[in-house]
Amino acid sequence: MEKRVTFNERWLPYLLVAPQIVITLVFFFWPSGEAIWQSVLVEDAFGGNSKFVWFENFSHLFSDPNYFASARLTLVFSALVASLGLAASLLLAVMADRVIRGASAYKTILVWPYAVAPAVAGVLWGFLFNPSVGVVAWALSVIGIEFNYVINGNQALLLIVLAAVWNQISYNFLFFLAGLQSIPKSLIEAAAIDGAGPGRRFWDIVFPLLSPTGFFLLVINIIYAFFGTFGIVGSLTQGGPGQSTNILVWKVYNDGFRGQDLGGSSAQSVILMAVVILLTFVQFRFIERRVHY
C-alpha cells in the first residue's frame, strides 16, 4: 500500500522549500544574471562608466590563442582529476570495506582530508614539494629526481592535480563505501560458490551495481575540477609558471580582478558555466544509458 505525505495547510510545502529557493536565487541565479549582463559591457576599473558592446567581449575571447590554450589545459586537468580521483577512491573503498581489524580507524582517517579547505590543501602540498624546504622534494632529490614546480610547468600541473585529487578523494570514498555496503552480500557469496574469483566478482557484480554511484560522482568531480580547484591553484601556483596551470576558473579571476577586464572576465565565466552545463547534459543524455539502476 502506497503511503503519501499530506499537508493540512496548503502554504506549508512552499514554506519548507522557501529557504532553498531563496539561497538558489541569491547565490546562483542573481550572480549568473549579473555575469551575463556584464559580459556584454565594457567597464572601467571602478565600474563608473560602462558601454554596451553586444558580443564584442566574446569575439575577443574566441580570437585569443591564450584563452584556447587555457581551455585545453582545463579539459586535460579535469580529465586527470576526475579519472584519478574516482579510481583511487574506489580502490580505497574496496579495501576499507573488507572485514579487518581497525577498519573503522582506517575509514575515519580516509575521511579527514575532506575537512581541509582547497586553499589549505594547496599550501600543504606546496610545503611538501617546496624545492628548498619540502620533505618530499628532498626525498625525490636523494633518488635523483629534481622536482621544482616553481620553474617546471609540467611538474606544477602534476602537483595541482595531485592536490586536487587528494582534497576530493574523501568525498568519493564516502559514496563508494556506502554503495559497496548496500550491495547484497548474498549475490557475492553466490558468485563465489559458483567458482567466480575476486576479480570476476568485482567486474561482473560489484562494479555494475556501483554504476549509479559512479555516475553521480563523475558529474560531481567534473564540476569540482572546473570550479572547486580555484583555491588550490591560487595558493599553490597562481597559474604559473608561465601559463602552465592557468585553468579557466583562475583565468576568470586573474583577468577580472588583476587585469581589471571586467567585461572579458564576465564573458569567460558565462562560457565556463555554459560548458559545464553542456558537459552535465551530455553525461546525463548518453553516459547514463550505461548505468544499471
Automatic annotation (TrEMBL):
Q: Write down a Pfam family by its short name.
A: BPD_transp_1
Q: Which Gene3D superfamilies match?
A: MetI-like
Q: What is its main location?
A: membrane
Please give, as recorded in its UniProt entry, the membrane topology of this protein: Multi-pass membrane protein
Locations listed in the record:
Cell inner membrane; Cell membrane
Give the record's keywords alphabetically.
Answer: Cell inner membrane, Cell membrane, Membrane, Transmembrane, Transmembrane helix, Transport
Q: Which family does it belong to?
A: Belongs to the binding-protein-dependent transport system permease family.
Protein name per Swiss-Prot or TrEMBL = sn-glycerol-3-phosphate transport system permease protein UgpA
Task: Please name the taxonomic classification of the source.
Answer: Bacteria, Pseudomonadati, Pseudomonadota, Alphaproteobacteria, Hyphomicrobiales
